[in-house]
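fold-stage: in
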Amino acid sequence: MIGRILTLGYGLVSYALFFAVFNYSILFIGNILVSPSLDTLGPVNLPKALAINLGLMALFAIQHTIMARPAFKRWWTTIIPPAVERSTFVLATSLILAAIVYYWQPMGGVIWHVENSTAVAGIYALFALGWAIVFLASFQINHFDLFGLRQVWLYFQGKPYTSLPFRKPFLYRCVRHPMMTGLIIGFWATPVMTVGHLVFALGCTLYIFMGVQFEENDLKKALPEYPGYSSSTPMLIPRFFA
């Protein structure tokens, strides 16, 4: 019983950390209420700043890509209990995301700065929409399974884990990867685009396009319904009408 309690506690702490870091990251990216933010300007050693920032994003991409692959999961769950595999992935993601926020280096220069109040409000509305899509999409496919809470809760109850059935809720009928679509909107919808923000947005967008290719291959192998779904539903640009 103690092992089940510890497993549940581990999953809850991992999720709480992710929730805090992810929401702080949204404020960091949007230059909202936090300092420094992604658009903070300051003295710049451009080669050093670029090397650090690209290194941080590469670390995130490597961790995310490797730990999400089925082959790694099969090996990893011979070392750790399967019930905490997803929570461990979430915890590792949170720590690296926190490192990106904490160690991000300012990269001087403003590419655009929208000052019209109506336009700024519209851009921030688009920014909010992007992150709302991310959250809504996660709940449409089972937010708690995605972030490891369902796995540790089932283990706590002494029940075996069961895979979720293939479903196509609203957002997933419009686009196959709505969370990625929302992230791209959130990265680019900004009234102030500094060089640092541009590097971040470009790097993250490039990784999304690369990462979804790995995800697509895994889904086609795991779900017999997925090839037909992928042929009828766009990957990242939503289609609202058939």
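fold-stage: in (second)
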Amino acid sequence: MIDRRELLGRAGLMAAAAALPGPALAAAQPDWFAAVGDVAGDIAPHALSRIHGRAPADLAGTLYRNGPARFRLGGTAVGHWFDGDGLIRAWSLRDGQASLRARFVETVKRRIDSKAGAMVQPGFKTHGRPGAVVGSADDTNAANTSVIAAGGQLLALWEAGSAYALDPETLATKGPVTFKPELAGMPFLAHPRIEPDGRIWNLGMGGKRAFVWRLSKDGKFEAGQAIALPMASYAHDFTATARHLVIVLQPWVQERDVLPFADAMVWRPELGTKILVIDKADLSKRRVFELPPLFFFHLGDAWEEADGTIRFDGCFDTDASFVSNAASALVEGRFVRAEKPMLKLVTLRPDGRAELGDAGITAEFPRNDPALAGLARSRTVHVGGYRTDRPFARSIGIWDWQSGRDDAHDFGAQQIVEEFVPVGRWLIGTTINMAVGATELHVLDARRVADGPVVSWRASMALPHSFHGTWVAA
């Protein structure tokens, strides 16, 4: 029987009600502050201004993106970049024209904060304030990390609570999704793995236990099972081959039951990194590999070779300093230097050995061709060009593990580059142009990334930095 208490946590007993001051803003806001700025409300549909180029004739659809966009309210602020309210952006391409509409996910958290006139709900690293109401993890769910399409609706994803269903046309919130009545409120990571035929795999993390979700391409519950983990690691992402789930357990581990969540975590490098490989057809069949201590947020798709060797790439740090310190400072308008993530290749051998290769480039937000999910590949889309004197990426590239080359375009010092999504031969994504104070939409040819955008449009405002998104063809 599933131990729902362990997987759901003891959030209802951990409401942090002590009044704490909000983070103080820097005296002079830096130019990159637009990436963590606030959006006053929903954004009505409107056309974008074309900067240059022409839209590809075979590209029509909508790029949906999700990210935090309300960090401050009534003189208070959240305590971490990851705790702002989720805003779904819909960047649509039709007949060579581009438009934008955006709407906040109407979560329980957002309603409680709005009623209180302050950011009172605890979160990833935000302490609760008087007026906080915490009966379950969903009361702190910001629905601000990713968005996927399934069953004719959008799912706005967080990582410790329910997915939120949205209407893909109006972006109106339908409410939290209950895939099965007895699994209501179970955690559902923001990085499900989707097979080429549309089947969805995901995890729900809870201490030293996880729940493995399997959904149909229409987002219907097919199967689920609780599994034991080697340690209570923070896992923002996992990966999968055609036959196996691959769960990387880093040594940032939960040692207490408290809110905010980050206060429960401790960096234990002596534990090393453990990689759990589980057979999709029989979750009891498992192997554990070991690597030195690593910290990560995002992994590329994995694949398996004829001899059983499994490979996948990811963007790795050597410690948790960014998430535990630097990401909180961003909301205050401060830059705290932290190690930049590096693109690395993990190889798991049939004899139990684990190896780590290095591309030698800074990189984040890895994406792969969805048609090759779980299958052999060599190329990874990524952002990069990180500097030591400021946050956020400035370039987009495709790294090829076979050639050892990076085909990249540097947007320049005045641009903040967000995740780009591969769509056939194209890459589509957004940047924040700090020089003009506006977010821009770009399309690049994946065969010639260094040539830069084939077409670009500009919105009338700068939206905060978004995290992840998905393309839905028209």
